[in-house]
Amino acid sequence: MLIHKEKKFFTLFTEQAENMYKGAKYFNELVTSGKFNEDTLAIMHRIEHEGDAISREVSEMLNRTFITPFDREDIYMLSNNIDNVLDSVDAITKRMGLYKLTQPDHHLKQFSVIIEQASSSIVDAVKLLDNMKHSSRIQAYCSEINRLENMSDHLRDIAIGELFEKNSDPIFIIKWKEIYETAENTVDTCDYVGKTIYSIIVKQA
Questions:
Q1: Please, are residues 18 and 126 in contact by the beta-carbon 8 Å criterion?
Q2: What is the pTM of this model?
Q3: What are 73-121's pLDDT values in tens digits?
Q4: Domains and CATH numbers, the chain
Q5: In contact, 144 and 120? CB cutoff 8 Å
Q6: b/e burial code for range 146-174 (CB count within 10 A of at least 16 → b)
Q7: Is the pLDDT of residue 169 over 80?
Q8: Could you give the 3-state DSSP secondary structure of residue 35?
């Protein structure tokens, strides 16, 4: 029974990561189409709600399980950080709708691709966590997430620099600066997931 419960954690991690990726992919589709409206925001909120439900299930199982596949703190951090990525994606989507920004610029389009790619690498890494024989591959995915995070830092600086250089409307600047910073924070959160995964495999070595 304990073995079953241990395997269930990995199943839930995979479900949570795949749902997070679903949200990241949908965000990229919205950025491409510019359709940030009541209907699309509702779809994103449903995806985010599904993520919350899986996160709660992980927490409940953690409370019920005596023997866990790795440290309880790491289980909680991994689940919580994956959930935070999706929360952040949902936050950008809401702000785009709230601010009536229906024409995403090339910077946000780059951010949305980076977010989707980082989310995809998280899924790939999480799927291998149940077997530490794959530790080198897992580390490679974590390194890729970190590379994308460095890209997003650079992109944020360029985007905000151009924003102040090419615009004089303070409201416009405030809106887009918040969007860029939230997008970059989303990739930061992906990197937190990567660092948590890396910490897990180091402890299991």
A1: no
A2: 0.94
A3: 999 999 999 999 999 999 999 999 999 998 899 999 999 999 999 999 9
A4: 2-204 (1.20.58.220)
A5: no
A6: bbbbebbeebbeebbeebeeeeeeeeeee
A7: yes
A8: coil
